[in-house]
Design brief:
Layout (H helix, E strand, L loop, with lengths): L24 H14 L4 H30 L24 H38 L5 H7 L2 E8 L4 E2 L3 E3 L2 E3 L3 E11 L5 E12 L38 E9 L10 E5 L6 E4 L3 H16 L5 H12 L7 H9 L10 H12 L13 H4 L4 H19 L3 H19 L5 H15 L7 H26 L4 H25 L1 E3 L2 H25 L4 H27 L4 E3 L4 H21 L3 H16 L2 H8 L6 E5 L7 E5 L5 E6 L3 H11 L3 E2 L2 E3 L4 H4 L2 H5 L3 E2 L2 E3 L6 H13 L4 E3 L5 E4 L2 E7 L17 E6 L2 E5 L5 H9 L11 E3 L10 H7 L3 E4 L12 H9 L3 E4 H4 L2 E6 L2 E6 L1
Parallel strand pairs: 6-8, 14-16, 15-17, 16-18, 18-19, 23-24, 24-25, 25-26
Antiparallel strand pairs: 1-5, 1-7, 2-5, 3-4, 5-6, 7-8, 7-9, 10-11, 12-13, 12-27, 13-14, 20-21, 21-22, 22-23, 27-28
Length: about 900
């Protein structure tokens, strides 16, 4: 018994908790594993597992009951005799009662625990088998194998989303609209109509009218995406629970781990034909989300994109470039409405979790005089609204389930530790939706929460014993524990280990709470007081912008990450390395000076100062004049133009790769960016060139096709107020020791180019005695016209030739013979599907006496030297 505390509220502090209750952990893990295995199992195997588990569990429970009776001295009931519920014979063996109780617990507890595990396994097997059967039930799987064209009524089950822009060769693949749905009615090619309930993925291809209007909000000037033409699609306005009728081709599903039975490809069908409006709850949630988007419309680009993602998981405005920055710093959990969002809201209502059941509890509820159980009911309502508005993603479901269990404990007045709450949440969610057992997001969410509940308190205490301030110790321990546990799983998804994850998460943590609270306040007020909502959104934009800046800064560090094998052996290796580092770190903490030296070494690895890097790696070589970046299947080159300055010729297909190359070269100022032509493998990486650098101008060919890539370049330039000029033959420029002349295209192209390749800007460059000929993607017609032009006679005997069109077979032999390069460089991607470079082209270059190097085999290359001295250094 505990005396009353004397607090005005009259409640006493609960007694201290004993050891952590882990009894629910084995059943939760067993159910998780069983659900993952049985989703794809045959019905007979699943039924067998259920029957065996139920029989064995029943036998264990009966045996445990008999042990309890024998320990109490109760006789076994005769056949037909009712069991005794109380009383019974007195024990005759004289053993003290406490000893008998302990012996009874020792004998019966393992059997009860094993029985509980088996019952959970049986339940998970049944649930997984039923959900897996949904993938095989009905006509949809067979129609997918036939690639049949059908008319179907589908119910939308997720928010529509856009595919990320992708580069395929010289072209950007237009974005498509994706949405998860359930087929409720399907009309087969023979006219048969069948009612069903089959989960599918609907893809609205760009060929449809509804998917090509307007600019994508995710492909604006800062996106780094050359094309994004789906924002105006009415498909994007569909809400979950809406039923639409589509004419589509049914194809097999290959990439979602079996969660959908097939894919419905919709193309050229125009706007969706709505047959049933969404539910009232979904309409209200859609209005709330729309109000949040409207309130954030006038913010800075990063805050406008990030705030809806932080609050409700709306990532439609997140640009590919910003998304890559969050991935590089392991901050993507902030874009997925993680459990942290709900925890912040719950703490705002009931106070810190550690004091929620104390008499002097904190939070808004006690300040408003709301009783404890009414607080729990209010919290439950908040949980339900949170799931509806933020959508039932794995992390949202897990956070809401844990919060609901904690609220139930508050309502009943019984204390619960958080480990059993987490285990119960996992068990209930896996039984409710077995597909979560195969979700990486759910796995990462549970692992991070488990680390915060188990490792973080111990690490925090250890840091505090070494005189680290408590707040800093808690933050360090939380970030470090979550990163240590989640990193082996993250590396399977990203093939890269972030070295800046812990500091970036620490710096971002201070802004998450104010951004979340202000963001939800914006969400709540947008429908009835838009001016207030806009003011709140403006306040929230400051912490949101801080988080975006942290992500960008961390991702821009040269040593931000390390490439790692993206398989489970690689994950196991990383786990072993992490354990080793933790063990070493424990010893380092005892030696402050040694710890400081290690921290300084890590800082040097992350920042990689250019002089130090050049000394250690030899890259870039002293006096380099020309560099060819390794950007995969594309072109990106740099002409040295002084200390920290360089002229960039083409930007490659990926902004991350070109940005990384320019950082290693130490380029901070770019007098001119030359884009030889507008194919995506030459211009899609432009955002990476412009990122954080001073750019004087952009010069490009006058043949502006493909049109979408040309528009992308102009949007990028206009957003940064960079002038765009047209390159024409005869133009000559000079900066420092660098001098170049434009050889092609002529002011009025003759002959008219057959395509963008033949309109490529061709440069003849002189740099400290070296001569270089950069041909872009010129093909034989333009190459022959170049030789016949007045400048054709000047092409003889160059030092370095950038081979046209990635070394394709379409080359003019006379141009190769006349150029007679000493060094021929080819930019192409490893295992590209085009066969670049062609063996015939490589053979012709070597026959002319050239040394041939290629980025798919030799990586990035830098050329240095002058006169007869010429050498090449690779990364």
């Amino acid at each position: 018994m505990h005396a009353a505390s004397g607090n005005p509220r009259g409640a006493a502090r609960p007694r201290q908790e004993g050891p952590t209750d882990l009894r629910l952990v084995p059943p939760a893990l067993a159910a998780w594993a069983t659900a993952a295995l049985t989703l794809g199992a045959s019905p007979g195997w699943t039924i067998g597992v259920v029957v065996v588990c139920l029989v064995v569990a029943g036998a264990l429970l009966v045996t445990g009951r008999r042990h309890r009776r024998r320990s109490r001295g109760e006789p076994e009931p005769a056949c037909g005799e009712p069991e005794r519920t109380h009383g019974g014979a007195e024990p005759t063996h004289g053993e003290p009662e406490p000893n008998r109780a302990r012996r009874l617990l020792w004998r019966t507890w393992p059997k009860a625990s094993v029985a509980a595990v088996l019952l959970c396994v049986a339940a998970a097997a049944a649930s997984g088998g039923l959900h897996g059967a949904d993938m095989r039930r009905g006509p949809v799987p067979e129609l997918a194998r036939q690639y049949a064209e059908v008319t179907a009524d589908v119910e939308v089950t997720s928010d529509p989303r856009l595919t990320r822009p992708r580069i395929r060769g010289a072209h950007a693949v237009p974005t498509a609209v994706l949405l998860n749905a359930e087929v409720r009615r399907i009309e087969q090619p023979d006219g048969t109509v069948t009612a069903t309930r089959t989960p599918v993925l609907v893809i609205v291809s760009p060929g449809s009218e509804s998917a090509v209007s307007g600019d994508s909000s995710g492909a604006g000037p800062e996106s780094g995406a050359p094309s994004g033409k789906a924002h105006g699609s009415p498909w994007l306005s569909l809400l979950p629970s809406t039923k639409v009728r589509v004419a589509a081709r049914v194809v097999p599903e290959l990439g979602d781990g079996g969660r959908v039975a097939a894919v419905l490809r919709v193309q050229g069908s125009g706007p969706p034909q709505v047959v049933e409006e969404p539910s009232g709850a979904q309409r209200f949630a859609g209005e709330l989300r729309g109000g949040l988007r409207a309130a954030t419309e006038g913010l800075e680009p990063d805050a406008r994109a990030l705030l809806p993602g932080l609050v409700v998981g709306d990532t439609s405005r997140i640009t590919p470039e910003l998304d890559e920055a969050f991935k590089a710093t392991d901050l993507t959990h902030l874009l997925a409405v993680s459990g942290a969002n709900f925890t912040i809201l719950l703490a705002l209502l009931i106070g810190p979790p550690g004091r929620a059941q104390h008499a002097e509890r904190r939070g808004l509820a006690p300040r408003l005089g709301i009783p404890l159980r009414a607080t729990a009911v209010l919290g439950g309502t908040l949980s339900l609204g949170f799931v509806i508005v933020c959508r039932p993603d794995p992390s949202v479901l897990r956070a809401a389930a844990c919060g609901s269990i904690a609220l139930l404990a508050i309502a009943t007045g019984r204390r619960r530790s958080l480990i059993p709450a987490l285990a119960t949440a996992v068990l209930l969610l896996v039984l409710y939706d077995p597909w979560l057992s195969r979700s990486y997001g759910f796995l990462l969410s549970v692992l991070a929460t488990g680390a915060l509940l188990t490792l973080a308190p111990r690490w925090s205490a250890a840091l505090q014993r070494r005189r680290v301030p408590p707040r800093l110790a808690e933050a360090l321990a939380a970030a470090g524990a979550a990163q240590a546990v989640c990193a082996p799983v993250v590396v399977v998804l990203s093939a890269r280990v972030s070295l800046v994850a812990v500091p970036c998460n620490l710096l971002a943590e201070f802004a998450v709470a104010p951004a979340t609270v202000l963001g939800f306040a914006t969400l709540a007020t947008a429908l009835w007081a838009m001016p207030v909502a806009k003011a709140l959104a403006w306040c929230a934009s400051w912490p949101a912008g801080w988080i975006a800046d942290i992500a960008r800064t961390g991702a821009a560090l040269p040593g931000a990450g390390v490439d790692w094998p993206d398989n489970w052996p690689g994950a196991l290796l990383l786990a072993c390395v992490t354990v080793l580092l933790v063990l070493i770190g424990r010893r380092l903490l005892r030696h402050p000076w040694l710890s400081g030296a290690c921290a300084m070494l890590l800082l040097l690895v992350l920042v990689q100062p250019a002089p130090l890097t050049r000394v250690i790696t030899g890259w870039p070589p002293p006096g380099w004049r020309f560099a060819m970046c390794d950007v995969g299947q594309g072109d990106a080159m740099v002409l040295a133009a002084g200390d920290g300055a360089g002229v960039v010729v083409d930007a490659g297909p990926d902004p991350v790769l070109i940005d990384r190359c320019l950082r290693t070269l130490g380029i901070t100022r770019i007098p001119l960016v030359v884009l030889t032509h507008f194919h995506a493998d030459h211009v899609a990486g432009l955002a990476g060139v412009l990122r954080g650098r001073s750019v004087g101008a952009i010069e490009a060919t006058g043949f502006e096709e493909p049109l979408d890539q040309a528009e992308f370049v102009h949007r990028q330039a206009a957003a940064r107020r960079i002038p765009v000029t047209r390159a024409v033959a005869g133009e000559r420029r000079r900066t420092g020791a660098l001098d170049w002349r434009v050889l092609w295209p002529p002011p009025r192209p003759a002959p008219t180019p057959e395509g963008p390749n033949d309109a490529s800007v061709t440069l003849f460059v002189r740099s400290a005695g070296l001569t270089l000929l950069l041909l872009g993607d010129l093909e034989p017609p333009a190459q022959q016209a170049l030789l016949r032009s007045p400048v054709g006679a000047e092409l003889g005997g160059v030092d370095v030739l950038k081979v046209a069109h990635h070394g394709s077979a379409y080359q003019d032999p006379e141009l190769i013979r006349r150029a007679a390069p000493r060094l021929a460089l080819i930019s192409c991607g490893a295992d590209n599907p085009y066969g670049h470079p062609a063996p015939s082209t490589v053979a012709a270059l070597r026959a002319g006496g050239a040394t041939v190097l290629r980025t798919d085999e030799d990586g990035a290359m830098a050329v240095a030297g002058e006169g007869d001295r010429l050498w090449v250094a690779g990364v």
